[in-house]
Amino acid sequence: xxxxxGSDAAQQLEVILLDIDGTLLDSTYYHALAxxxxxxxxxxxxxxxxxxxxxxxGGDLLVTEVAGEQAEEQHGDELRERWDRExxxxxxxxxxxxGAAEFVRAAKAAGYRVALASSGASKFTDxxxxxxxxxxxxxxxxxxxxDAEESKPAPDILAVALERAGGGRALAIGDSTWxxxxxxxxxxxxxxxxxxxISEAELREAGCAEVVDSVAELIERDLxxxx
Length: 227
What we know:
By secondary structure, this protein is an alpha/beta fold. It has two domains: 15-26 and 95-225, HAD superfamily/HAD-like (Rossmann fold), CATH 3.40.50; 28-93. It contains ten helices and six strands. It has helices spanning 28-41, 48-54, 59-67, 69-90, 100-109, 122-132, 156-164, 177-186, 200-206, 223-226, and strands at residues 15-18, 113-116, 141-142, 170-174, 190-193, 210-212. 50% of the residues are buried. InterPro entries: HAD-like_hydrolase_sf, HAD-like_sf, HAD-SF_hydro_IA, HAD_sf, PGP-like_dom2.
């Protein structure tokens, strides 16, 4: 059996559900910095490490996770608006991970359908494609925060992405424990990548069946066997 993305064993697997931030784009720490600055703007001081650990869950949940229910009640909408402005201010510094676009193209060439399952704002998913050098025609589905009632770790985004990609047996790939938990709740296997700054042990504990350093390592892997 060939140990490549396109081996015969891969035929049972049909759809790759790919997270974007921290998985395809080196953006996790920029998101954390933007959130920290947003919190500081309303007088809430929080250490960057605590914010970082919440990145990957939806902005509708992150405020409570980081600063508590009172912060959400008093400042939730303002914090999300501030985060939006702060992240846009650093967006030009965000870069794709080496091999990210190549992995998407290799998966497509091997016959998989690829869905970008992000709970970020649509303007940021559009920018992600631009940064990756991918066109919308090179993926089968793209989601945003507008597409689900509940964000990660709820599985809603994965369900929408899979439906838009045509359904079938799926494998999720993400960098955060929130991605892994969403995949587990959705009932699909998950591969974790360490490019978001989360340890292998934590990713496995959250539900990842396999953990690699980056998506570039998966270009030559048998995804069908992993899935």
